[in-house]
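Action item from last meeting closed. Structure (393 res):
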């Protein structure tokens, strides 16, 4: 639903033009859209296709947030209707899904997608239709700010951005792992991997450390990584940074350990979902670390219990971010006191002190990026253990 501007002109006599210099048409204030019986929030998620695991967890979190809100009476005194769409893990389908949600379903906000490419694919549609979007896990800086430095006014996120992940990983490699030489293994077609790798490299080299190797693979195609691992072994790095997703990362680490490449492996939040331990093996995952969302323990326990009761499985970082993203949208609607999407957008842009499961979120109006914390997790005997938490300055 959109705000409509209605201009009402009073009758203007001809004498007014000559005798009353201050006489002018009267303009009424824009009419506020009426609150509908049901408030529609959309979800554009990867429910099938290559990264369906991400989308399903994100949607689960979002739907749980909406269900809990409805149980408490809804928002603006109305129940929320969730309208889901499957982008099939493809950018083109994401554009189609966003268009349907915005123009046919008439949602007043969209949660998702989870991935960078699929989120970027909906930017023009939601901008044209003035629908605010919150991506739970789209970490590329270009989602909210174009490469030319222009703000994408209708785009927001619940997660930190790629440069921050890369900075955190590099700092951990230097300060805690005491690494002075690092190797990179990058998905050559992945914006996510490239963004993290660039940030890691910049931070690592700025500290006077050395990138001794940079190897590439193609996610979804390559399964034998022995050649690139041989090249890396020859350079004798202290740490190997692999900012990819769990499937390829698991295979890379498994093959590395079989080749006796036993140095520390480090990655981003793409490790934190899926059976990475099953792929690599418990022992192989020792001395491996990754960056992911920081968790507010005071909120996580109740969220986790509710999530398990609803879906019969433990929540992960993507479920947490889907939940936080939906609650951010709901709070913005409440703050706006309206279903006017411009008012909701403004409420998101000025959001401060939002208490999420992934910690407190304060949105920077100039970039739409949230100031929040990240954590480093490590694997011990196949279990994920918190190593440390880093605050965004």
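Sequence:
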């Amino acid at each position: 639903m959109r705000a409509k501007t209605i201009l009402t002109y009073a009758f203007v006599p001809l004498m007014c033009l000559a005798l009353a210099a201050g006489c002018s048409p009267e303009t009424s204030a824009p009419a506020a859209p009426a609150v509908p019986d049901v408030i529609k929030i959309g979800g554009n998620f990867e429910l099938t296709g290559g990264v369906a695991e991400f989308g399903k967890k994100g949607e689960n979190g979002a739907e749980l947030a909406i269900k809990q809100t409805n149980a408490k009476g809804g928002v603006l005194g109305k129940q929320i209707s969730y309208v889901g769409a499957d982008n099939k893990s493809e950018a083109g389908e994401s554009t189609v899904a966003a268009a349907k949600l915005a123009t046919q379903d008439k949602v007043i906000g969209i949660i998702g997608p989870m991935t960078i490419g699929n989120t970027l694919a909906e930017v023009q549609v939601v901008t044209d239709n003035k629908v605010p979007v919150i991506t739970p896990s789209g970490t590329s800086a270009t989602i909210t700010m174009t490469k030319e430095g222009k703000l994408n006014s209708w785009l927001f996120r619940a997660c930190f951005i790629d440069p921050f992940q890369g900075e955190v990983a590099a700092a951990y490699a230097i300060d805690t792992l005491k690494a002075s030489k690092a190797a990179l293994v990058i998905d050559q077609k992945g914006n996510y991997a490239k963004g993290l790798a660039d940030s890691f490299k910049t931070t690592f080299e700025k500290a006077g450390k050395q990138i001794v190797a940079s190897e590439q693979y193609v996610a979804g195609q390559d399964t034998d990584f022995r050649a690139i691992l041989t090249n890396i072994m020859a350079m004798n790095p202290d740490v190997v940074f692999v900012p990819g997703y769990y499937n390829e990362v698991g295979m890379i680490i498994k093959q590395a350990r079989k080749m006796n490449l036993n140095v520390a492996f480090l990655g981003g939040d793409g490790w934190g979902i899926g059976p990475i331990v099953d792929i690599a093996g418990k022992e192989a995952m020792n001395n491996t670390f990754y960056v992911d969302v920081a968790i507010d323990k005071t909120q996580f326990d109740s969220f986790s219990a509710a999530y398990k009761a609803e879906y019969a499985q433990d929540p992960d970082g993507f479920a947490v971010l889907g939940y936080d993203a939906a609650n951010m949208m709901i709070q913005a609607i409440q703050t706006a006191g309206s279903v006017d999407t411009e008012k909701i957008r403004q409420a998101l842009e000025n959001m401060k002190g939002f208490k999420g499961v992934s910690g407190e979120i304060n949105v920077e109006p100039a970039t739409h990026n949230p100031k929040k914390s990240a954590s480093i997790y490590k694997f011990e005997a196949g279990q994920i253990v918190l190593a440390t938490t880093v605050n965004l300055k």
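Note appended to the action item: Residues 38-159+296-371 form a domain with the Rossmann fold fold (CATH 3.40.50.2300).
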